[in-house]
């Protein structure tokens, strides 16, 4: 089997926003029937065709690192932040605070050690230069639980502009979906195109020279996408510490 390169995408957001359901849907193309609370980190893997349909098409593994959002683990979860090739920021569309907290998640990741760099009440400022441009970390913002909104709020969410949002600050695409509906990101949909475009950006940043379109000669290459000996025959969760949910 030919060697397949990989990239590492952090999936972060407050506890309970639906990160585990989201990563399962992305990797397995089906809803997760019994999600649990993630303790530590859960890892899902997806095969992606870079620049599909072009002469540059190539196969990559996308590692989706679903980092537990519990505040009690804030000072230790930084071990999962390095290296970071891309970031998916996840918030609950029914919980405005979870969207506001995405800025704190970005600061925490950039701080690298995972420790709290700010005290409650501190003003958060994001430097757009950290996220804009081909050499910076690609970001995608995803809002979950679209199905829990009434029609009026759903229409407002889907038709709103990104002005002033964290997606606009970071120059990122934004997706709003229902993780219990497989067709939410079915091939050919607008959201599926956004996901594919995000993966391509992540891969380009790590492996390709955007000016020439050629792969870097020194790009990291591996024939095995995980250190646990699980064969890459399918999308597989191979690092998942979780406990059953105790609340709806």
Structure description:
This protein is of the alpha/beta class and 248 residues long. The chain has helices at residues 19-28, 96-100, 102-111, 151-159, 166-170, 190-207; strands at residues 5-12, 36-50, 58-67, 86-92, 139-144, 173-176, 208-209, 214-215, 239-244. The strands form two sheets. Strands 6-5-4-1-3-2-9 form a seven-stranded mixed beta sheet. Strands 7-8 form a two-stranded antiparallel ribbon. The longest helix has 18 residues, at 190-207. It is globular, with a radius of gyration of 18 Å.
Number of strands: 9
Give average pLDDT, whole number: 80
Based on Cα principal axes, name the global outline: globular
* Count of runs of 4 or more consecutive helical residues: 6
Query: What is the H-and-E element order?
Result: EHEEEHHEHHEHEEE
The end-to-end distance, rounded to whole angstroms, is 44 Å
Q: How much beta, percentage-wise?
A: 15-25%
The largest sheet has its strands arranged as: 6-5-4-1-3-2-9
| Poorly predicted tracts of residues | 113-121, 220-248
Short description:
The chain is built from 6 helices and 9 strands, in the order E-H-E-E-E-H-H-E-H-H-E-H-E-E-E.
Topology (SSEs and partners):
Blueprint: E1 5-12, H1 19-28, E2 36-50, E3 58-67, E4 86-92, H2 96-100, H3 102-111, E5 139-144, H4 151-159, H5 166-170, E6 173-176, H6 190-207, E7 208-209, E8 214-215, E9 239-244
Parallel strand pairs: 1-3, 1-4, 4-5, 5-6
Antiparallel strand pairs: 2-3, 2-9, 7-8
Structural key phrases:
single chain, alpha/beta, disordered C terminus, 6 helices, two-stranded antiparallel ribbon, 7-stranded mixed beta sheet, 248 residues, globular
